[in-house]
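S.,

Sequence below, as promised.
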Amino acid sequence: MSTRLHQSRHGRALLLTMESACGKNPVSAQLGLRIRDAILAAESDDGIGVVLLTGAGNVFSAGGDINGLIASFETPPPDDVLREQLAQSASACLALMDTPLPTIALVNGAAAGGGLALAAACDIRIASQSAKFAYAYTRIALAGDLAANWSLTRILGPGRARYFCLAGKVLSAAEALNIGLVDELHAPAELAEAGLALARSIGALSPAALAQVKAGLDAAASQPRDAAIEVETANFLIARRHPDHREAARAFLEKRPPHWAAPGPVSSSS
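The prediction came back faster than expected:
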């Protein structure tokens, strides 16, 4: 039931594709570490400006391996082992949240449980019109993991997140768009190209500025107003001094594409 992670480059975009023999692309500690390591490697590659995550076939990720869970009932691992496995699985979501690179989930099919958590950890979610979204944990009498509760509350707001998680509903792609869980819908055959087009558009922007914007948005979502404004101001000043700002202004007046400097450690998050 191991889920492989394929990597492919498309200009400045890195596409990560989850694939398993069973077709459900289950989440696991091994997959979490693979995604984390791929993102960390991308951060040190100046040729990568955006990371996309999708699933092979017609499923994004159906969550955990239920058969594996059942097989562990007779000899359950100790809590410290489970904690380590959960931390390894969650490392993918933390990497997607923490990277200065913009991240996009291409939700090509069902996203449930841990699969939903992976999608929710990305900055942007675009989905196939045939995609479905389910919290799913309560169906097998579990609580959320992989930062799913934190991410969903942040995206949907406390009230909608509680309704979605506690009611156990499966959302269609249209319903997910309506409540803000996804940002765009596309025909199944057009999803990959739409995602790459969006990645190309984002990847053409200054990597340094994008990192600063992400830090400011993170602060706005997690810190009190005045503290968030301090982060915003600090990042504005960093951007104002960065060579990309001067290059962008000159390129705008000269009606030419800009040429960005390497981003480096440019953003402030506190």
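The longest strand covers residues 4-10.

Coffee later?
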